[in-house]
């Protein structure tokens, strides 16, 4: 009883989720088949949704699952299927700068970690309010209504832009393939 | 009318320039029309010049204070307070008025003469355009109010001289002579340019009136030594342009050009530009006695030296060319002993009789189809009376027989040299006078008297050519009368053209008699050797007796050969050294070396330009890292603010 | 046996840094353009973790971090759409999505 009570379940959840996130992210980068890569990406996103729950962001966790694990991953898989038709086993290779990039990335991680550890945060003693959706909805439609509408517009523009870019333009294609 | 001419004296150089433009752009295909345009402009210019000169000479105040019309040419420096202002304009005083009158008159006569001389030449129109350009430049030179403007004109006449000497471009000798003249004068002009720049630097102006006032108290600006150096530098220009020793070598070769050119440019006008420049800058030279001595000695030596060469030459124009050098030496001598009057007087008379003789020589060459050796002529006076007798008048004038023009001016120079105490220079001048009479009359007796040569079929030249001869002969006869000691003071040369003060020259009978005796002796000797003795046995015997001297004189004292040797051994040797230096040091190390280093860096930088986005992103993140590290660890306050959000 | 597991803001930030680093590594080293796009998504998610963690620990009542995360997700969705369209267009011209072959910036 004492053992179970003394365990900080939040911390356990964090470590488990964090391990999932890091491992699946590493697999995203490392596997040689791009479809597998996308699958591990989905795992990573779902784990992240769990992490958001530990941060009292239940609305965002839902959004994360729907938008990222659902829409984005499916879209990427569609993209892969449109352009790569054979030999998936070598569809996701490394280029020649892995070592030096690894060095830079290690430095980035160390620097960010060191800075966040060094910084003395002004931690707030308060808890996050329970009804997150209410609060976010109120803020988005009152104080942040203009960024909200702009974001909507951005999505529309992205939609149109993607259609135009990806549209089959036969004349141009034959021109440049020559 | 006179008032108009004086106010619009700028038209004098402009009209020939206009005719140059018209001929070159429009009338070149029509030869007669080109000649007509050229002569019309030249004569109009001459009329304006005459009127302007008349205006100047009837109003004595311009002697003291020149009539200057000037306009801003350019200025450098801040607007409102320019550091350098150069004006361009015309300056009329008796000296320049005399010059524009003389130059435009001689140029007009020679253009008329050229109609006959150049007939049938394919370059007829071009020739007239060049003559116009030359006349324009020369008139601009003499009328300039500013030494920089004068220098521009000075270079322009040099250019025309080059073009006209090399006018017969099919002749190699003409091309070579043109190059020689141009290069030699350029050497001298460099000295002149240095001198003018020094004047500008020291005195801050090149305007002649202003400069003369400033140089009057030159101690406020510089020392006497510097001023002497400047004067010597300025004098290098005239040494080249006026064919003084040792840069006289181009002038005899310049006779390769058509004879009217020799008469106009290389006898009457351009070559006296040097004398004129020294005369114009007398205010400078008179302040530094050493420079004056240099001018005088150079002049006297050149006079004697050139005359001794002329004694033995065989080509008619070459004799005249050395005679010109010799006479220019006289003018320099006069300037050197301080007499602007005598120098300008001799310049004036010399222009007439030397132009006359050159045109006469041209007439002879025209008749003999360019056979130039005087030993192959003879008895020409019977077939060509006008040419012959006018040439004789010229001979009398240059020898110094009264009352012809040359006597008065030469006498003035000799008496000035004598009076100023330069006895050695006087003696040199006197010997030169004797030699001049001898070689000129040797030429006359050989060419015009004696037996006719059967192989020659001379004929008198057309009226276009003889008419200018007659006019010039008249001027050579009476041109000196304006400057005799007995001329009424009001119209006397010495009353108009002087430096510092006009002084009445008392007739120096001893000098006068001496120079007449010397001239007479020279003529008599020539008469004995070349007229009485038909076979010229005595002359040959004399030449044999002094073979060494004769060879030396005949080969022009080997000056050309010395220059050639100098060129081949020293200049070419140095050039080889410099060539190697250029190839290996300048090109090899400096130029190609710098280029190679740049290329090396370029090649190095090129490696970094892979064109791959991910390489760039990597470098970009390295940069971001560096900035973050610097901000985080060097400046805690701002780094804390930016990266931690904690105050 | 006493397990002293605890969790704080720094833990989240370090996790975010690691995730960001992995994403960055993928962006820098993967040949496939779509893979690079995926890795950019990882980096954006790392940022989201930061936003939400700081929102919880520093300004719990304001929801600013969460709203920012929503915008980030929006923009990321748009970015994936456009990015894929661009990759498809390039593939149509070049018949390749290999970034090593795309060195047009060189000339």
UniProtKB/TrEMBL annotation, chain A:
Q: What is its EC number?
A: 7.1.1.-
- Mention any one GO cellular component term assigned to this protein in its UniProt record: plasma membrane
Which EC class, in a word? translocase
TM annotation in the entry: 12-31, 38-55, 61-83, 104-124, 144-166
Which catalysed reactions does the entry list for this protein? a quinone + NADH + 5 H(+)(in) = a quinol + NAD(+) + 4 H(+)(out)
Pfam families associated with the record: Oxidored_q3
Sorted alphabetically, the keyword list is:
Cell membrane, Membrane, NAD, Quinone, Transmembrane, Transmembrane helix, Ubiquinone
Q: What membrane topology is annotated for this entry?
A: Multi-pass membrane protein
MF terms from GO for this chain are: NADH dehydrogenase (ubiquinone) activity; quinone binding
Record localization: Cell membrane
Q: Which family does it belong to?
A: Belongs to the complex I subunit 6 family.
Biological role stated in the UniProt entry: NDH-1 shuttles electrons from NADH, via FMN and iron-sulfur (Fe-S) centers, to quinones in the respiratory chain. Couples the redox reaction to proton translocation (for every two electrons transferred, four hydrogen ions are translocated across the cytoplasmic membrane), and thus conserves the redox energy in a proton gradient.
- Name-wise, this protein is NADH-quinone oxidoreductase subunit J
Question: From which source organism is this entry?
Answer: Desulfocucumis palustris
Q: What is the lineage of its organism?
A: Bacteria, Bacillati, Bacillota, Clostridia, Eubacteriales
UniProtKB/TrEMBL annotation, chain C:
Its placement in the membrane is given as: Multi-pass membrane protein
Coiled-coil residue windows: none
User: What Gene Ontology molecular-function terms does this entry list?
Assistant: NADH dehydrogenase (quinone) (non-electrogenic) activity; quinone binding
Principal place of residence: membrane
Write out the catalysed reaction.
a quinone + NADH + 5 H(+)(in) = a quinol + NAD(+) + 4 H(+)(out)
What are the record's GO terms for cellular component? NADH dehydrogenase complex; plasma membrane
Q: Which GO terms describe its biological process?
A: ATP synthesis coupled electron transport
| Transmembrane parts of this sequence | 12-29, 36-55, 67-91
> Where is this protein localized, as stated in its record?
Cell membrane; Membrane
Determine the domain of life of the protein's source: Bacteria
What InterPro entries is this protein classified in? Answer: NADH_UbQ_OxRdtase_chain4L/K (IPR001133), NUOK/Mnh_C1-like (IPR039428)
Tell me the keywords, alphabetical order.
Answer: Cell membrane, Membrane, NAD, Quinone, Translocase, Transmembrane, Transmembrane helix, Transport, Ubiquinone
Q: What is its EC number?
A: 7.1.1.-
Q: Which HAMAP family match?
A: NDH1_NuoK
What function does this protein fulfil? NDH-1 shuttles electrons from NADH, via FMN and iron-sulfur (Fe-S) centers, to quinones in the respiratory chain. The immediate electron acceptor for the enzyme in this species is believed to be a menaquinone. Couples the redox reaction to proton translocation (for every two electrons transferred, four hydrogen ions are translocated across the cytoplasmic membrane), and thus conserves the redox energy in a proton gradient.
What binding partners and quaternary form does the record give? Answer: NDH-1 is composed of 14 different subunits. Subunits NuoA, H, J, K, L, M, N constitute the membrane sector of the complex.
Similarity comment: Belongs to the complex I subunit 4L family.
Under which name does UniProt file this protein?
NADH-quinone oxidoreductase subunit K
Q: Which gene encodes it?
A: nuoK
């Amino acid at each position: 009883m004492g053992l179970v009570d003394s365990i900080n379940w939040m911390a356990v959840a964090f470590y488990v989720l964090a391990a999932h996130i890091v491992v699946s992210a590493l697999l995203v980068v490392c596997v040689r088949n791009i479809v597998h890569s996308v699958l591990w990406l989905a795992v990573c996103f779902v784990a992240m949704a769990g992490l958001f729950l530990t941060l009292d962001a239940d609305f965002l966790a839902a959004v994360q699952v729907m938008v990222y694990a659902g829409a984005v991953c499916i879209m990427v898989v569609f993209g892969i299927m449109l352009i790569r038709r054979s030999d998936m086993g070598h569809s996701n290779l490394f280029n020649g700068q892995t070592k030096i990039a690894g060095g830079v990335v290690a430095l980035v991680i160390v620097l960010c970690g060191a800075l966040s550890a060094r910084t003395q945060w002004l931690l707030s003693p308060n808890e996050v309010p329970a009804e997150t959706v209410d609060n976010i909805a109120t803020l988005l439609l009152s104080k942040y209504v203009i960024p909200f509408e702009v974001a909507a517009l951005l999505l529309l523009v992205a939609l149109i832009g993607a259609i135009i870019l990806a549209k089959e333009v036969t004349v141009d294609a034959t021109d440049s393939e020559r | 009318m006179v008032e108009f001419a004086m106010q619009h004296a700028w038209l004098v150089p402009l009209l020939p320039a206009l005719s140059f433009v018209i001929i070159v752009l429009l009338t070149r295909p029509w030869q007669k029309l080109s000649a007509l345009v050229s002569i019309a402009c030249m004569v109009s210019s001459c009329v304006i010049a005459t009127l302007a000169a008349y205006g100047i000479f009837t109003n004595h105040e311009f002697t003291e204070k020149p009539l200057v019309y000037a306009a801003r040419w350019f200025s450098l420096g801040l607007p409102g307070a320019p550091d350098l202002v150069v004006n361009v304009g015309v300056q009329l005083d008796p000296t320049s008025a005399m010059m524009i009158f003389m130059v435009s008159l001689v140029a007009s006569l020679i253009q008329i003469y050229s109609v006959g001389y150049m007939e049938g030449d394919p370059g007829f129109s071009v020739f007239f355009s060049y003559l116009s350009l030359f006349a324009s430049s020369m008139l601009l030179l003499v009328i300039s109010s500013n030494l920089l403007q004068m220098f521009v004109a000075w270079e322009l006449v040099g250019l025309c001289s080059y073009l006209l000497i090399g006018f017969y471009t099919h002749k190699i000798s003409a091309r070579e002579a043109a190059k020689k003249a141009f290069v030699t004068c350029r050497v001298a002009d460099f000295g002149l340019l240095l001198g003018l720049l020094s004047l500008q630097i020291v005195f801050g102006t090149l305007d002649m009136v202003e400069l003369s006032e400033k140089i009057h108290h030159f101690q406020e600006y510089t020392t006497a030594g510097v001023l002497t150096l400047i004067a010597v530098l300025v004098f290098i220009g005239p040494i080249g342009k006026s064919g003084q020793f040792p840069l006289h070598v181009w002038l005899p070769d310049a006779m390769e050009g058509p004879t009217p050119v020799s008469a106009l440019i290389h006898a009457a006008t351009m070559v006296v530009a040097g004398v004129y420049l020294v005369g114009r800058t007398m205010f400078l030279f008179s302040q530094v006695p050493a420079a004056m001595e240099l001018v005088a000695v150079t002049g006297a030596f050149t006079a004697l030296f050139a005359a001794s060469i002329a004694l033995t030459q065989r080509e008619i124009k070459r004799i005249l060319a050395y005679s010109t050098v010799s006479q220019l030496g006289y003018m320099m001598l006069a300037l050197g002993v301080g007499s602007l009057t005598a120098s300008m007087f001799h310049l004036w008379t010399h222009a007439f009789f030397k132009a006359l003789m050159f045109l006469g020589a041209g007439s002879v060459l025209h008749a003999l189809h360019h056979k130039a050796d005087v030993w192959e002529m003879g008895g020409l006076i019977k077939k060509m009376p006008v040419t012959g007798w006018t040439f004789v008048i010229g001979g009398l004038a240059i020898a110094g027989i009264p009352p012809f023009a040359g006597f008065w001016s030469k006498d003035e120079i000799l008496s000035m040299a004598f009076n100023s105490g330069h006895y050695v220079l006087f003696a040199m001048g006197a010997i030169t006078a004797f030699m001049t009479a001898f070689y000129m009359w040797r030429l006359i007796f050989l060419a015009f008297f004696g037996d006719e040569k059967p192989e020659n079929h001379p004929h008198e030249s057309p009226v276009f050519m003889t008419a200018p001869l007659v006019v010039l002969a008249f001027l050579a006869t009476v041109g000196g009368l304006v400057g005799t000691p007995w001329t009424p003071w009001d119209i006397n040369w010495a009353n108009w053209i002087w430096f510092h003060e006009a002084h009445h020259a008392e007739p120096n009978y001893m000098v006068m008699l001496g120079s007449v005796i010397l001239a007479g002796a020279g003529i008599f000797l020539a008469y004995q050797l070349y007229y009485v003795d038909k076979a010229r046995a005595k002359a040959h015997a004399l030449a044999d007796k002094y073979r060494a001297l004769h060879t030396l004189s005949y080969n022009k004292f080997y000056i050309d050969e010395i220059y050639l040797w100098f060129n081949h051994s020293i200049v070419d040797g140095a050039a080889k050294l410099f060539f190697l230096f250029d190839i290996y040091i300048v090109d090899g190390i400096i130029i190609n070396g710098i280029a190679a280093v740049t290329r090396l860096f370029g090649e190095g930088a090129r490696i970094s330009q892979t064109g791959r986005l991910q390489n760039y992103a990597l470098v970009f993140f390295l940069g971001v890292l560096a900035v973050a590290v610097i901000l985080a660890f060097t400046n805690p306050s701002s780094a804390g603010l930016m990266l931690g959000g904690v105050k | 046996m006493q397990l002293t597991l605890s969790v704080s803001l720094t833990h989240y930030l370090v996790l975010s840094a690691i995730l960001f680093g992995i994403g960055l590594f993928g962006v820098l080293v993967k040949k496939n353009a779509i893979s690079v796009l995926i890795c950019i998504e990882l980096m954006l998610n790392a940022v989201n973790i930061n936003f939400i963690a700081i929102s919880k620990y520093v300004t719990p009542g304001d929801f600013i971090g969460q709203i920012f995360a929503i915008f980030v997700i929006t923009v990321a969705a748009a970015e994936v759409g456009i990015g894929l369209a661009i990759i498809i267009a390039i593939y149509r011209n070049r018949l390749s999505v290999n970034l090593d072959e795309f060195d047009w910036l060189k000339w």
